[in-house]
Specification:
The chain is α/β, with parallel strands linked by helices and 324 residues long. The protein has 9 helices and 14 strands. The strands form 2 sheets. Strands 8-9-10-7-11-12-13-14 form an 8-stranded mixed sheet, covered by helices on one side. It has a 6-stranded parallel sheet with strand order 3-2-1-4-5-6, with helices on both faces.
Length: 324
């Protein structure tokens, strides 16, 4: 019989709510404790998800000996400090994406987890969705031939609040860290580490990137075109083109349950792989599988993969003239 895991939830915002909602369909998982700097919010979350405890201190959460793993659901500007707090108190960590503000911070987090023999994974929920798994299997089976080109976009129009998370530099604002991580993740999943990164960005008055138009080229000559924006809407679609055909992931691609396989001289083939909840359940199961097997990292979302993505974001931001 597999172990039942008691989760500690660090942060009580929108993402944490989605995560806890999905946990209700995952056997062997339990929202055990919720922590927020706002004691009222922590209690409300604890009541909503039947958690045994609520804390208004992250320090108290990480010291709770009954917690098996902590999910960090706060804005990414705080991930490094909070993940290190968890790791230094002997807690396994699932940290919302992006793992941190830079490859340097991510490397330190990974080093700490490795030294302490603790599980650490970046919470890229899209990676574990059935649609992504099926897409990868089709590519591996040579259904579209050798992938040559990928295009993906993720853009929306955000209200312009100078002190809001998206436009505030001190909070890690900008499109690249907030949603660019999704696009870069998909390109890295298909092609691996790029040989060349070129990007053009537009900066806001607050000094963060409003959009980034990225071209990535790989050692074999393959190319990825990525567009992310917080000032205009995009199609929210992705396409992978190979030497035999293509895969088109439908809107919204980053949580898609449907995609189409297009092969020359053949009828398009539609795939539908619905979620049981909201899509976070697949990520939760992956973490539990890793813990069941004593793994310190996920083979599907490895530390090396996270560092590849983080280094690309570093390069894009450097070219834009943005530093945190």
């Amino acid at each position: 019989m597999e172990k039942s895991y008691r989760w500690g939830i660090l942060g009580a915002g929108r993402i944490a709510e989605k995560f806890c909602t999905a946990m209700s369909v995952v056997q062997g998982s339990q929202v055990y404790a919720v922590a927020s700097r706002d004691v009222v919010k922590a209690k409300v979350y604890a009541e909503k998800f039947n958690a045994a405890k609520s804390y208004n201190s992250y320090e108290d959460l990480v010291k709770d000996e009954n917690i098996d793993i902590i999910y960090i659901a706060t804005p990414h500007a705080f991930h490094y400090e909070q993940a290190m707090l968890c790791l230094n108190n002997g807690k396994a960590v699932l940290c919302e994406k992006p793992l941190s503000l830079s490859a340097e911070q991510s490397l330190k987090m990974i080093a700490a987890a490795t030294e302490k023999k603790l599980f650490l994974m970046e919470g890229m929920w899209s990676r574990f969705m059935p649609s992504i798994e099926k897409m990868l299997s089709l590519i591996k089976e040579d259904a579209i031939g050798k992938p040559q080109y990928l295009s993906v976009d993720f853009g929306f129009t955000a209200p312009y609040y100078i002190d809001g998370r998206l436009f505030n530099k001190s909070l890690g604002g900008g499109s690249v860290l907030d949603i660019g991580v999704y696009a870069i993740f998909l390109a890295t999943l298909v092609f691996g580490e790029p040989a060349c990164v070129k990007s053009i960005s537009k900066l806001s008055a607050t000094g963060v990137d409003e959009y980034a138009n990225m071209i990535l080229q790989y050692p074999g000559g393959e190319t990825a075109h990525l567009l992310t924006s917080i000032i205009f809407n995009t199609s929210l679609e992705a396409e992978i083109i190979g030497t035999k055909g293509s895969i088109k992931i439908k809107n919204p691609w980053y949580k898609a349950t449907e995609f189409t396989l297009c092969i020359k001289d053949a009828e398009p083939q539609d795939f539908s792989l619905p979620h049981e909840s909201n899509g976070f359940e697949h990520e939760i199961r992956e973490v539990m599988h890793c813990l069941d097997n004593g793994l310190l990292q996920s083979p599907k979302m490895s530390h090396e993969f996270t560092l590849f993505v983080s280094k690309i974001m570093d390069e894009v931001l450097e070219q834009a003239g943005v530093s945190y």
